[in-house]
Design brief:
It is a single chain. The chain is α/β, with parallel strands linked by helices and 510 residues long. Helices cover 35% and strands 16% of the residues. The chain is built from 15 helices and 17 strands. The two termini are 45 Å apart.
């Protein structure tokens, strides 16, 4: 079973609760009591009773004949991106192996194998557990993992496992977690390779699967689940479905709602919600203002009909007028600006939250990563919600995903995909009035946000200096908004969330 399967990964500060670790150890004993001759290897949290180091070990228990026979401890503790294991866990000094059935079996836990020459993070550690085990004359190497998914990671992990097997000159089994835990999505894609690192078996992505394999068979063809290898957009789609479904159900929600603007972002989010939760459990609400275009209303209605979801229209004109009237004496002598635009967005947020409260439905916010990066969103307006489904999906990929969703039939109206994107908070507004084309914006954001490149490096890559400086200014200026955003599902190497910790008040310009 995967890393920390007994309690879930990552447990974070649940480890600070007085009963959490004892309860996890009691659960382990219940699991062990159900074992017979076939052994079971499962991840759990072990108390560190040595009186030295941190309080706990990230451990694995070898269970058989009704009890825990032996425990193994993780050596390398990641403390980068979304990982903070050094906050609670104590690392083992060396990896271990055991004899079973006349075979020597090495046990590693997730990061312990992330030490191949092509892995950048290997220099963080003082030793290489795979190198240590390569001298143990192993017959089998096992790895229990909770490795979160991001696009492009599948092949990298397979290369990593193949490298470890080749270095230890033995077959290897990599067992990865499945499911959503807050913003993290664990995709499975567990694999087995032979001593040369050749793939023997590949399990399903984004769903649980069990398989019995013969690791000593060299003639057998690869055994691959149909979803083990699929096109990138299918992976992104399945990852977001899993993350949304688990976040909703584990939080106690069975229904979701969202505002349908007629735009691409809300359309993609609605399609994902209908797939993840069932069309009968999704409520779409159109919230037109006095300046909303007729095609936006028509596109929203067409989308809801195509999906078969519940659909309502709640106009905000009277609500906006009442707010404008109330504010008029205070705003006397001041010209209209973005303030009045935001009153519209916040009126929508107020109504959506009211429906969420009344019907017990999870409100999904629909902003994408590009907009969240530059602050092209309204705090307490369209940012309202309990989960930001596509907040780690750049705008260009939102369009790609929409076309993939439409691959068999038109679900998202063609006009929604073809028309110029607009927030529709003022007449004839277009996103490109305030932003460069999304192809340019997303490329700059990938360099600045995900790769940490400086403005000069981005300009040297061929982007116009005035655009680069404007985008970087907007990213830095809107850190305070992102700190108040709903949790978002992580699918890129670096998402806005727990893996990116930029001070709000920083004044660094680079």
């Amino acid at each position: 079973f995967p890393e920390l399967a007994v309690c879930g990964y990552p447990p974070r500060d649940l480890l600070g609760k007085s009963r959490f670790v004892p309860d996890n150890e009691a659960s382990l004993q219940e699991i062990a009591a159900q074992t017979g001759e076939p052994p079971l290897l499962v991840g759990f949290v072990e108390q560190n009773n040595s009186g030295q180091g941190r309080d706990f070990y990230n451990a694995a228990a070898w269970c058989a004949h009704g009890e825990v026979q032996r425990t193994f401890r993780k050596c390398l503790l990641p403390a980068y991106d979304v990982f903070d294991e050094e906050r609670h866990f104590h690392g083992a000094d060396n990896p271990q192996f055991m004899e079973y059935g006349g075979k020597r079996i090495g046990i590693t836990i997730c990061e312990d194998i992330w030490t191949a020459p092509f892995v950048d993070t290997r220099q963080r550690y003082r030793f290489d557990p795979v190198e240590v085990l390569s001298g143990a004359d192993l017959d089998l190497l096992l790895n229990l993992s909770a490795s979160p998914w991001q696009f492009g990671k599948n092949d990298f992990r397979q290369d990593l496992v193949s490298s470890a097997a080749s270095r230890c000159r033995c077959p290897m089994v990599f067992c990865n977690a499945i499911g959503g835990n807050d913003e993290l999505i664990f995709d499975g894609h567990s694999i087995a390779v032979n001593a040369e690192g050749k793939l023997i078996a590949g399990l399903a992505g984004f769903r649980e699967e069990s398989l019995v394999i013969d690791i000593q068979s060299d003639s057998r063809q690869e055994i691959l689940s149909p979803s083990f290898r699929q096109e990138p957009m299918a992976d992104i789609h399945d990852a977001l479905l899993l993350g949304l479904r688990d976040y909703a159900h584990k939080s106690g929600f069975h229904k979701a709602l969202l505002g349908l603007s007629g735009g691409i972002d809300s359309a993609v989010t609605a399609a994902l919600a209908a797939d993840a939760l069932g069309k009968e459990n999704v409520i779409g609400i159109s919230l037109p203002s006095a300046i909303s275009s007729s095609h936006s209303r028509d596109d929203a209605a067409a989308l809801a009909a195509n999906l078969g979801i519940e659909y309502h229209t709640l106009g905000i004109s009277e609500l906006v007028s009442a707010a404008d009237k109330t504010l008029k004496p205070l705003f006397e002598g001041r010209s209209e600006d973005v303030t009045e635009e935001n009153v519209q967005a916040r009126s929508r947020g107020l109504l959506l939250m009211a429906v969420s409260n009344k019907f017990g439905a999870l409100l999904l916010s629909t902003g994408n990563k590009s907009e969240l990066a530059v602050g092209y969103c309204t705090l307490y307006g369209d940012m309202c919600g309990g989960l930001a489904v596509i907040s780690d999906l750049p705008k260009v990929k939102v369009y790609q995903l929409a076309r993939w969703i439409n691959r068999h039939r038109e679900i998202i109206p063609a006009n929604t995909i073809d028309k110029a994107p607009s927030a529709e908070l003022r007449p004839d507004q277009k996103d490109e009035d305030s932003l460069p084309p999304y192809e340019v914006l997303d490329a700059i954001l990938a360099l600045y946000v995900e790769e940490g490149k400086s403005s000069s490096e981005i300009i040297e890559a061929g982007f116009a200096p005035e655009i680069v400086h404007d985008i970087i200014r907007k990213v830095d200026l809107n850190e305070y908004k992102r700190k108040q955003a709903a949790p978002g599902l992580k699918i890129t190497p670096l998402a806005f969330g727990v893996g990116r910790r930029i001070p709000i008040v920083q004044k660094y310009v680079g």
